[in-house]
């Protein structure tokens, strides 16, 4: 990358229109390469790309724009077999039934609708557990209040549906 930057700007007067144009093109080219490298490597590297997209005060805008446009919206989705193998590895079996199509995916995880052994939606239990923890934290630390009305109504909707 460093060599390509030097080569692309070679012989151009620093600060000139040609130099600025070439620098912009090289920034775009390498932002795209870095984006593809992050996606190819997956996991924590996608998280790194997301972080780079937030460093507008340090990183050239071409990198910020490229990372923001892709890293937050185009996270990879694991296959049903990959998800099943995680269940087997972590839980020893795949007795829970889950929807093979994820509800959402992120840099380090993805979400699937699932049912417990007794046929209950697991999401309901998860949301209830999170609600319990958040309410306890607010009771114990009153300044710590994540029980905002808009969040509560979303959780209540999820519990009902």
List the helices and strands and how they pair.
Blueprint: H1 2-9, H2 17-41, H3 44-52, H4 61-71, H5 80-91, E1 97-98, E2 104-105, E3 110-111, E4 114-115, H6 122-140, H7 149-160
Antiparallel strand pairs: 1-4, 2-3
Low-confidence stretches: 149-161
Distance between the termini: 51 Å
Roughly what percent helix? 55-70%
Sheet with most strands:
2 strands, antiparallel
Strand order of the largest sheet: 1-4
Structure summary, number of beta strands: 4
- Using the CA coordinates, give the radius of gyration: 23 Å
The computed structural class is: mainly alpha
Account of the protein in words:
- The protein has 161 residues and is mainly alpha-helical.
- Helix content is 60%, strand content 5%.
- It is elongated and about 70 Å long.
In short:
With 161 residues, the protein is mainly alpha-helical. 60% of the residues lie in helices and 5% in strands.
Any key phrases for this structure?
161 residues; mainly alpha; two-stranded antiparallel ribbon; two-stranded antiparallel sheet; 5% strand; disordered C terminus; ABC1 protein At2g40090 isoform X7; Mito_struct-func_regulator; ABC1_dom
């Amino acid at each position: 990358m460093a060599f390509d930057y030097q080569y692309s700007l070679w012989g151009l007067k620093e600060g000139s229109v040609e130099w600025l144009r070439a620098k912009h093109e090289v920034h775009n080219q390498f932002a795209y390469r870095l984006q593809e490298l992050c996606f190819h490597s997956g996991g924590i590297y996608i998280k790194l790309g997301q972080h780079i997209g937030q460093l507008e005060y340090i990183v050239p805008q071409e990198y910020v724009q490229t990372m923001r446009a892709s890293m937050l919206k185009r996270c990879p989705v694991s296959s049903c077999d990959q998800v099943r193998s995680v269940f087997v590895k972590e839980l020893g079996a795949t007795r829970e039934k889950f929807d093979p199509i994820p509800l959402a995916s992120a840099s380090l995880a993805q979400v699937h609708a699932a049912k417990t052994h007794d046929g209950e939606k697991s999401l309901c239990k998860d949301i209830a557990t999170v609600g319990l923890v958040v309410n306890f934290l607010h009771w114990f630390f009153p300044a710590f209040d994540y029980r905002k009305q808009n969040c509560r109504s979303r959780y209540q909707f999820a519990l009902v549906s």
